[in-house]
Design brief:
heterodimer; A: mainly alpha; Cytochrome Bc1 Complex, Chain D, domain 2; 2 domains; 3-stranded mixed sheet; two-stranded antiparallel sheet; 10 helices; 6% strand; B: mainly alpha; 2% strand
């Protein structure tokens, strides 16, 4: 038993993970500068791929890779998510048992507001994603919460994104608590996970558009703009956080909780990075 | 340089796998008596299988190697060519596989030894295979 014990002590040392790339601004609340991070991220990609227009990053890997872009464009001629938008619209307009509807829960009746999510909610003291807001609306009106990753919640989210197409992402960080949530998301993005010891940044910054066998990780810039996506591999629509869990499993790690604080903060960080790009969800992916 | 601890959950998983390895008697952290001359045909064949196996080395996910059976490699890492000339000391090559973050803290390459992805013997097998190229 003694040998196992001392091995375990050694093991926790091995589990200390390190940041994969020099972060652009600081990693403390006092030094972190979201705007500096965002412009550094955007200019990093513009320098690395000068032929790609900033606005094209909303198309993910297809902004960089011409052959897969062609395949994708032919898929988009008959979008596989069309049915989901229609379903989402019907669900969105259906009244709850108490006579109210989603429109009563959101600014502008829920139309054209995707670009403001995730948002820092001062009264709840946390980041609220669009999917969380949808379920909070249901609960406030006496309805059961929907599952987080696919199905109805993704359809409603898809419809809401669709009504917001071409609106510019505008995630705000209004105070220090929101900044702390941003910082937590940033740390998650750069922290290594799993047995394979990889961070999101390993694949989606340094490793972007470089092959891992047949897979081409896309740039983190624009990752969030087209969600939810209809993914051929899933054969259905899924939310952004469903994909987060998938990437964490791929590095042989334990996925974090869907819509838990860690993932909401990660989404807050990722979306802030894409401020200035437009909403183009729902999207189609391989 | 900042560092973060991973999830408690992950720690548990890793501990399980570490205990398993410990019980198998494969605990020889970093130590190797491997020499260039010692490679047998059996070792080379095992190393090749580990190089290609998605669940083991999966080196082919990131490295091209001029072996006709190593088709459609990824290119995150440099081509593994002229290995004897570039890595005359097998300890250096072995250390790169055991934990590449020592040399290159921001690398995407997994620490195959440190994280128990491959056993010490398996790393030796891969080294033997790499020296064929």
């Amino acid at each position: 038993m003694k040998i196992i014990k001392s091995l375990l002590a050694g093991a926790s040392l091995a589990l200390v993970a390190s940041i994969s790339q020099a972060a652009t601004s600081g990693n403390t609340l006092a030094t972190v500068d979201p705007e500096a991070d965002r412009s550094a991220m955007q200019s990093y990609f513009q320098k690395r791929f000068p032929q790609v227009a900033l606005s094209d990053y909303v198309n993910g890997i297809y902004a960089l890779d011409a052959p897969s872009r062609e395949q994708w464009q032919s898929i988009e001629e008959f979008p596989p998510y069309e049915f989901d938008i229609e379903e989402g619209e019907a669900l969105f307009n259906k009244t709850f048992a108490n006579g109210k509807s989603y429109a009563d829960c959101f600014a502008n009746g829920g139309i054209g507001i995707r670009q403001n999510f995730p948002r820092w909610d001062a009264s709840q003291g946390k980041v609220v994603t669009l999917e969380l807001a949808i379920n909070q609306c249901r609960k406030a009106n006496g309805e059961e919460a929907l599952g987080w990753k696919k199905g109805k919640i993704a359809q409603i989210s898809a419809y809401m994104a669709f009504t917001s197409r071409d609106n510019v992402f505008d995630v705000q960080i209004p105070n220090d608590k929101a900044k702390a949530a941003y910082l937590d998301g940033k740390q998650s993005f750069y922290a290594r996970r799993g047995q394979l010891n990889m961070s999101c940044a390993n694949c989606h910054i340094a490793g972007a558009y470089i092959k891992i066998r047949a897979d081409l990780p896309g740039p983190t810039l624009g990752h969030v703009t087209h969600f939810p996506v209809f993914r051929s591999k899933w054969g259905e629509l899924g939310t952004l956080q469903r994909r987060y869990g998938g990437c964490q499993k791929n590095v042989r790690g334990v996925p974090q909780k869907t819509q838990g604080e860690k993932f909401r903060n990660l989404e807050f960080f990722q979306t802030y990075m894409s401020n200035g790009l437009v909403v183009n969800g729902p999207g189609a992916r391989k | 340089m900042f560092s973060f601890h991973e999830d408690k959950n992950e720690e548990k998983l890793m501990r399980k796998s570490i205990i398993k390895h410990a019980l198998l008697g494969l605990v020889l952290v970093g130590a190797s008596s491997m020499t260039l001359a010692a490679a047998s045909a059996d070792q080379i064949a095992k190393g090749k299988a580990l190089y290609l196996n998605k669940k083991k080395g999966n080196c082919i996910a990131c490295h091209m190697i001029p072996d006709a059976d190593a088709k459609l490699p990824g290119n995150q890492g440099p081509p593994l060519v002229a290995m004897k000339a570039r890595f005359p000391d097998p300890k250096v090559l072995r250390a790169q596989i055991w934990d590449p973050t020592v040399k290159s803290p921001s690398t995407i390459m997994p620490p195959f030894g440190r994280h128990w992805i491959l056993s010490e013997d398996e790393i030796d097998d891969i080294v033997a295979y790499l020296y064929q190229y």
